[in-house]
Design brief:
By secondary structure, the chain is an alpha/beta fold. Helix content is 38%, strand content 15%. The structure holds nicotinamide-adenine-dinucleotide (NAD).
Amino acid sequence: MSATDKVSLPKIAQARFERLEARTAKIGVIGLGYVGLPLSLLLSAAGFQVTGFDIDEKKVTDLEAGRSYIFRIPAEDIQTARKQGLQATTDFSRLTDMDAIIMCVPTPLTGHREPDLSYIENTAKSTAPWIREGQLVVLESTTYPGTTEDVLIPLLEAGNTAGLKVQTKGAAAEQGVFYVAFSPEREDPGNTTVARHDIPKVVGGHEEIATELAAVLYEGIFTRSVRVSSTRVAEMTKLLENIYRCVNIALVNELKLLSLRMGVDIWEVIDAASTKPFGFHPFYPGPGLGGHCIPIDPFYLSWKAKEYDFNTRFIELAGEVNEAMPEHAVQAVSRALNTHKKAMNGSKIMMLGMAYKKDIDDLRESPSLTVIELLRAEGAEVVYNDPYFPTVGRGRHYNLNMTCTPLENLEQYDCVMILTDHSDYDYERIVRESKLVVDTRNATKGIKSEKIVRC
Ligand SMILES: NC(=O)c1ccc[n+]([C@@H]2O[C@H](COP(=O)([O-])OP(=O)(O)OC[C@H]3O[C@@H](n4cnc5c(N)ncnc54)[C@H](O)[C@@H]3O)[C@@H](O)[C@H]2O)c1
């Protein structure tokens, strides 16, 4: 049964719906980062005419020249998409021609760890004047329930000089409206076991026509869409998923610390528990949380919860446990050096891995950044190696100005610390050539050596 059998579409939505269903629709993707660029390529490969919009001129110039700026996306993929019509621009007036507009802009925390919605707000303001009747606008940025309805929609309506309004629930479909939905991005960077198009796409419209338009759009590129009853449900779904992850990682991090004291190998425990065919999903300990999602998204909800006089205790506790992990990793190095009669102060440390997790080129919120600061504060001399980062300069919360050091002469370091378990590393060789290895990821699993300290 097609969507049109379930919801009767007004004339202004029908033409857009048909183009979306036939994949001849023009799609504008705003924000060409880790989410927006792969999404643009998926849409383009499916046959849609895609135009990417960004305020970052360098990204636009790169894409127009067929270059990639994301490690895991080869330039050939951009060039193929270009041949299929992919364009990139900083000119938001071109949004007028789009049938659907998808927003994938950042949602970080402010310095006071509160939601920073400025990117969504600025995008809404730049988009509003160009919205046309019957267009669909979808927000994909992770955020607290209510953002689409209470922040995005009012800005889109206020800035639309033609006076268009969002189609509202229960109102008869009419002229002069556009449609708004929320659909969270659920990608797991570096995960090669589930193809991105096989991750079901949750869609929640401001009302049911928007839901149908969004569903038919995403069904062009995803195996399946999951319709939910509102934008708030869709927003909360993404937060539940990430909070579930954050809390479970905290649990296993805490149990790792206890297991270390008890002389129990937590990784062996997790492997054994994972054989249970129901009721257990494995999470793994590490040197702390990283990435643009898990360390940040839960705090969008805990901030919003305060408005309802509600204290999200699980989120706060998980945050506390996870944020203490880099410090534990550094203490483990200090203790390990001590057994070699070395002080942290003046020790040379090679840190393996800058990325927040294996096999990706993303260091946002990476615990490695915190670990470097902590090691340096103790007087250690730190170098790093990471095949994904030839250099590490300056970001929102760091200013390192470091260059990747080749993995050579490992015996010159007092300690080699494994912070990211990239698959490309030869751990046998690393252990063989190093004096001391502190492994926060169980990357040296199966290697027997007195030199390894697993923490
Ligand atoms: N990276 C992930 O794996 C991932 C996974 C799931 C969800 N998300 C969510 O998706 C959203 C985007 O994340 P990302 O990782 O792609 O971020 P990103 O920083 O990689 O990319 C965002 C892009 O938006 C652009 N931008 C910022 N302000 C803009 C504006 N006003 N107009 C146009 N473009 C603008 C930036 O220049 C950048 O290119 C966030 O809400 C994030 O939480 C990310």
